[in-house]
Amino acid sequence: MDISVELAGLHLEHPVMNGAGSCKQLEGKEGVREMARSAAAAIVLGSITVPDRSGNEGDVYYPGNGFSLNSLRLPNPGSIKIRADLPEMVQLAHEAGKVLIMSAAGFSPDEYAHLANVGFDGGVDMIELNLGCPNVWQDGQQERIACFDPEMVSRILAWVESTVGTEARVAIKISPFSDPFQLQSVAQVLGESQLVKVVVSINTFPNALSFDPKGKPTISPADGLSGLAGQALKPIALGQIKQLRALLPERIRIVGVGGIQSGQDIIDFRRAGADAVQVMTALLNKGPNIFSAMLEEYVALLGSNSRDAVTDLRDRA
Question: 83 pLDDT exceeds 70?
Fold first, then answer.
């Protein structure tokens, strides 16, 4: 059974990859070398920032019941280190038959453009501009999340386009929107750009909060306010993908993120309009073997006799 997909002219063996934040360097537990040994069809590196970032201290990840919370502060080696390591990263990914995507998180339009240039100079197959970031706090104040400002999105796209050209494979990652009119405004900006080839939806829901049995926030930084991910996001992500598929031109592909941990989840996201999916919380909680487990169930469902479960997905795979 052929379950391959095409994403902006890139051939993926199947529609499943890791999410940004789970692979940030060449070696180690969060390294490209380890991810290359997994069953993921593509490797998402980053998010990478221009300076290196050590990340927050204390309790920064909480695997809740049906959700997760995180306040990592974008820890990564920075663009200088990544530039040096990218050729080997690309080689490892390609030798394993995988696509390498670099997620970039800038704090200004020129930083996004610089990071895109670093990635493409290093040979990555696609750049994912993480406009759902910087979902971080700096000096006690939360930074502006870029995708909620259509004018900022337009400026970022213009800077990146002037640096890498319209033919470059560029994906845009966005946050969950509760206001459909605001989503329409951002989708219009993305749809009118010849630079944008893929939209990745959704990033974590910002400023969630939970307490432990003693009444203490489960996350240390920012008084416990943190990004919500995992299964709780799935209905929100599916709804946003369905809206985006209706709003965006057909040439722009969609990658779904949010609570994906099973073969059925893959099918649900593809039914909503996603061409591929990214996995983050399930990967952090269960390790890289989650990819093979999900794919085994996905293939079994596609091969079953239940037409309701696979509604025309064979034609899209």
Answer: yes
Q: Are 202 and 175 in contact (CB under 8 A)?
A: yes
**127 neighbors 171 (Cβ within 8 angstroms):** yes
The continuous run of DSSP H or E covering 190 comes out as helix 180-192
Task: Determine the number of helices (DSSP H) and then strands (DSSP E) in the chain.
Answer: 11, 16
Task: State the Cα–Cα distance between residues 180 and 291, nearest whole angstrom.
Answer: 33
Task: Report DSSP letters for 222-271, one per residue.
Answer: GGG-EEEESGGGHHHHHHHHHHHHHHS-TTSEEEEESS--SHHHHHHHHH
* Residues 111-123 pLDDT 10s: 999 999 999 999 9
pLDDT at 24: 96
168 pLDDT exceeds 60? yes
Domains recognised in the chain with CATH numbers: 5-316 (3.20.20.70)
Question: Measuring CA to CA, which residue among 152, 211, 199 is closest to residue 173?
Answer: 199
**pTM across the whole model:** 0.93
Instruction: Report the largest interatomic distance among the alpha carbons of the chain, rounded to a whole angstrom.
Output: 56
278 with 44: CB under 8 angstroms? Answer: yes
Q: 59 φ, ψ to 5°?
A: -85, 105
Residues counted in the chain: 317
C-alpha–C-alpha distance, residues 17 and 277, integer Å: 6
